[in-house]
Amino acid sequence: MKIIQLTAFFLPVEGGMEQHVLNLCRELQKNNHSVEVICSDSMREGTIFIKKEKIQGIKITRYKTFWNITKLSKIFPGFIFDLFKKDYDLLHVHSYRQPYTLMGLIVAKLMKKKCIITTHCPLHQKGTRSRGTYFLAVLYDRIFGKIASKFNHIIGIANEEISFFSRYGINNKKITIIPNGITKKEFKIGNRQEFRKKYKIKKNDFVALFTGRIHKTKGLQNLKYAVDNLPKIKFVFAGLNDGYMNYLKKMYCKNKNVIFTGKIDHLKMPNAYAAADIFILPSDYEPFGISLLEAMAQRLPIISTNQGGPVDFITKDFGFLINPKNQKEWFNLINYLLKNPKKRKKMGKYAKKEAENYLWTNIGKKIIKVYETC
């Protein structure tokens, strides 16, 4: 089967959706499918000047970005004309509420090609994003919500998406929930000492780790009470600045137990997880949370937001789900795990076992089955 993946960003841009598309492409290639990625020429900041190339054997074509609706929403219409010319069997578009996914759907229908969408669950609740962005999301749903029924199939990553799309008259049979996944590489234990040495963390220091974009919606401000009242714990915030770093550095300027690492190369991420004792994800809303799976694969106990996708797979065997804005609860649970090493070890074993259910070898097969049956 000849398949085109349409997404706003792709390598060398790093992020959850980009990693998802990369791993999907790898699985398609392993199963003898032809795959190509088409995307904008945008990075999070700046432009990629190479318009056509192959990365890890994947053909990539980038199109000029003419307009930025938001930092994550791009208008790059050049791909439309090429879609009319390209030879393909199926178009797989990524991310709901994006102009390019609608453009792709229209072209695929005109060309009588199959078109599938993976939504990546952008169902942020009111108050978790700016008023302008929330207004645009509501407006989009009211105008285009029912058009989602025109896709041959909808792949969601979280169970809440079924009820969301049912509001627009979309039959549940047309929706399949297939979560994000990880590869076997994520299970390889990283170098604990190397990471701790680099960031001057002592051998016996207790480390609470967050990995992800440093953005307001990631909720790191929700940890202020815990940081202030647990001075012996090292809070490591690992990730690239997405507009909120300066604010957080001012907030935590007097807290010597907070470490901002900046962006860490994906290949070095296992070292960060290996250096940690627990993993924390305080997002105001989290569509899924691939970082949770990565942490679980490294045998880390989890304390996570209860807003969004994490509620589907984080269980009491290896994690806690809490209201992200409940600062005292963050303190209580982090302190509890600090004082209970046997509990941490037991939770870590369960976490790794659960993570094994999310290997991309299994996720890829489920997506290919949707391709073949839709």
Summarize the structure.
This protein is α/β, with parallel strands linked by helices. It is built from 13 helices and 16 strands. It is globular, with a radius of gyration of 21 Å.
Would you write up a description of this structure?
An eight-stranded mixed sheet has the order 3-4-2-1-7-8-9-10, sandwiched between helices. A six-stranded parallel sheet has the order 13-12-11-14-15-16, sandwiched between helices. Strands 5-6 form a two-stranded antiparallel sheet. The mean pLDDT is 94. 35% of the residues lie in helices and 20% in strands. The longest helix is centred in the first third of the chain and has 15 residues, at 16-30. The protein contains 13 helices and 16 strands. It has two domains: 2-181 and 359-373, Rossmann fold, CATH 3.40.50.2000; 184-357, Rossmann fold. Helix 1 packs across helix 13 (360-373) and helix 10 packs across helix 12.
Helix-strand blueprint:
Elements: E1 2-6, H1 16-30, E2 34-40, E3 52-55, E4 58-63, E5 67-70, E6 73-75, H2 78-85, E7 90-94, H3 99-110, E8 114-118, H4 131-144, E9 153-156, H5 160-166, E10 175-177, H6 192-198, E11 206-211, H7 224-229, E12 233-238, H8 245-251, E13 258-262, H9 269-274, E14 278-281, H10 290-297, E15 302-305, E16 319-322, H11 327-339, H12 341-355, H13 360-373
Parallel strand pairs: 1-2, 1-7, 2-4, 7-8, 8-9, 9-10, 11-12, 11-14, 12-13, 14-15, 15-16
Antiparallel strand pairs: 3-4, 5-6
